[in-house]
Amino acid sequence: MIVKMKKLILLCTRKETDSTLRELRSLGAVHVEHVKTPKGTDVEKARNDLKYVRQALELLPHGGAEPSGRDGHAVIEDIWKIIHERSELEEHIEDMRHERKRILPFGDFDPETVKHIEADGLKVCLCKTGPKKERPATPDGSMLTELSRDKDGIYYALIAQENVEIDAHPVRLPSISLTKMEEEIAAMTVALEENAERLESYAGDRVAVENIMATVEENLTYLETRGGMGVESEVAYLRGYLPVDRVDDLVAVAAERGWGYRIDNPAETDKPPTLIRNPRWINIIRPVFDFMGISPGYNEVDISLLFLVFLSIFFGMIVGDAGYGALFLATTLLLRKKMRTLSPLIVPLLVVMSVCTIIWGVLQGQYFSMNAAPAVFEGLKVGWLSSNDNIMFLCFLIGSVHITLAHGWSAIRRINSLQALAQVGWICTTWFMFFVIRTMVLGAVWHSYYFILLGMGVFLIAFFMTPWRSLKSEWFNHVMLPLDLISNFVDVVSYVRLFAVGLATFAVGNAFNNMAVGSGIHSVLAGFGAAAVLFVGHALNIVMAIMSVLVHGIRLNTLEFSGHLGMEWSGTKFEPFATRIKDTDGDKENVK
What we know:
Helix content is 57%, strand content 9%. The strands form two sheets. Strands 1, 2, 7, 8 and 9 form a five-stranded antiparallel sheet that branches. It has a four-stranded antiparallel sheet with strand order 4-5-3-6.
């Protein structure tokens, strides 16, 4: 649920600013909003320091290497030395390759030989003409030799006793021969590989670098908070928000430290941050919100539970293969043992998604996209789900229920207003659309009394969607009602994507199965080839299925459902000014 907030203005003397901020950070309860934009040399330096450390951390490989034992700051310095060295090597290799490409048509020769020739009084010039241009005239007392030609041009070497002009583009002589260029490229390539190995050797120091970044981040937050405070004469002040259950803690510290404060309820024009607290079993959906960077607005609702339930259903239907689900589950349990730093919320979330995939795959009888389920699991298959029409019907039903829950929730939120009736009207039109779609797509029998639902729905929406006192200023909502009804129809139809994407997942996997073993395996070599095709094909199919969940499964929650609920995901995440530590149970704020 979304925790209620209080608006805070906190005052202290200017000379006690630092001690006040240290105490406030230790309390870890206030989300600070800057009174003014933080500026200053120290703030800019801290921002640059954070950028410096963050880039080093981003380039540091993940892996199970042992820590080097070096200080974290020394590790960061070494990482940057390695990065600069790599950049110089890559740039030099690129220059050498470009130079090799430029000189290659003229052949492999030693520029020192050219210098010796010129020391004897002759002039040597490399030149080039267009691919279709005739051979240029050879000046008197000169020798012009064609060296090669390609689609870009014809390449010549001109030897003369003095500087002469020729109808061709001169080409600068190289500093070294092609052979030496190749040797330099090879040597630098080896150096680049050694550079990568040196960087890889610091993979075990990731925790040390992360700790330094946390310290630098905390220092920047402190400086920005101090720089963002307002100052009037000898008084410094800040403003922000804190949860209602932390007010007493703040009041106690304020009384002890002699701070002035004012605590109010947020005004309608205020935009308090959003703090969500849920039981652990619901909170496992939080990594999805963090990954997407979304948060409900303070005055919106927390849909974590329904998001988790329906995303689990969508995940299972889109991936739709018990074999894939079993792989997900095994991989998740393996990661739990191997990666101790993995968020404690990620593992249960992946377990839930994996189990839902297994259940749906078993019910449909799909195991690694095979045409027939293994005999031992055949009895668990639900025959009704063998029909594509039935699965589409189920998709439309799930969509209608999903949208109905959104409008039902909206009605409950408006229970003291006549606008709740408009939400009831939307529920009526949603089920009318369901019956229309069922008839149009699945050929179900149409009954004329379905129009009663449409009539009731349109009546309730038209008369109660806008408060009567606001009708004059919000009349446009009624003009848009026909388009909104069409949108309602489209939203219900859009849930068929669960069937379509699930079918595509099976079809792609089945195609790779047929490609690998369709004509049988008649030799050991053919067996290895079939195994490679199966591995690559199913790996690709799994990746595509997971991407489909991100595109379609999450969309149905964040757009279709949230749109009917009236959510805009306009919230700012509650970020208290605090000393941060890693939480061990994952269901509390990570602050101290």
